[in-house]
């Protein structure tokens, strides 16, 4: 069992930055691929970024490439999402998630259905 708690959301002006954190309980954090997803009102949950167990491979949705960076610190059981040059369309509830499936090669899933554990979410609002 893994519990995830997000923090770092808030209200920011366009072009600003925020850093989201997701703290995980349990001693097996390093065994999970981690992902960030977001959900805006009236929309489906959307993949944002993911990172493999070692942190050596990352994957982003095209709309955030060059602006967002996912990273992890396995010693601190924490995954981060650094968000720069924020846009109003980035407004959503952001969720972190953990996937305990072991994949071959550098594959990291981007389908919410592949993830086993979820945090409660943190609101990010970007004003224009």
What does it look like?
Helix content is 0%, strand content 46%. Strands 2, 4, 5, 6, 9, 10 and 11 form a seven-stranded mixed sheet that branches. Strands 1-3-8-7 form a four-stranded antiparallel sheet, with no helix packed on it. It is globular, with a radius of gyration of 14 Å. The relative contact order is 0.31. The chain is an all-beta fold and 128 residues long. β4 (33-39) and β5 form a beta hairpin. The model has no long low-confidence stretch (mean pLDDT 95). The protein has strands spanning 4-7, 10-13, 18-24, 33-39, 46-51, 58-60, 68-73, 78-83, 92-99, 117-118, 122-127.
Level of helix content?
Answer: under 10%
- What's the quaternary structure here? single chain
Which class best fits the helix and strand makeup?
Answer: mainly beta
Mind telling me the C-alpha Rg?
A: 14 Å
What's the order of the H and E elements? Answer: EEEEEEEEEEE
Instruction: Report the portion of residues in β strands.
Output: over 45%
Q: Total number of β-strand segments?
A: 11
Summed over residues and divided by their number, the pLDDT gives a mean of: 95
Mass-distribution shape:
globular
Instruction: Characterize the biggest β-sheet.
Output: 7 strands, mixed
Terminal-residue CA separation: 40 Å
Provide a count of the helices: 0
Question: Residue ranges: pLDDT <50 for 5 or more in a row?
Answer: none
């Amino acid at each position: 069992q893994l519990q995830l708690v997000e923090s770092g959301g808030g209200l920011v002006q366009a072009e600003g930055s925020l850093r989201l954190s997701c703290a995980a309980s349990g001693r097996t954090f390093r065994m999970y691929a981690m992902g960030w997803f977001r959900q805006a009102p009236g929309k489906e949950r959307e993949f944002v970024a993911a990172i493999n167990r070692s942190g050596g491979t990352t994957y982003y949705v095209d709309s955030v490439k060059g602006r967002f960076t996912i990273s992890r610190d396995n010693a601190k059981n924490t995954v981060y999402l650094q968000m720069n040059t924020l846009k109003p369309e980035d407004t959503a509830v952001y969720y972190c998630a953990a996937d305990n499936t072991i994949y071959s090669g550098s594959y990291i899933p981007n389908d919410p259905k592949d993830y086993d554990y979820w945090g409660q979410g943190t609101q990010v609002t970007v004003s224009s």
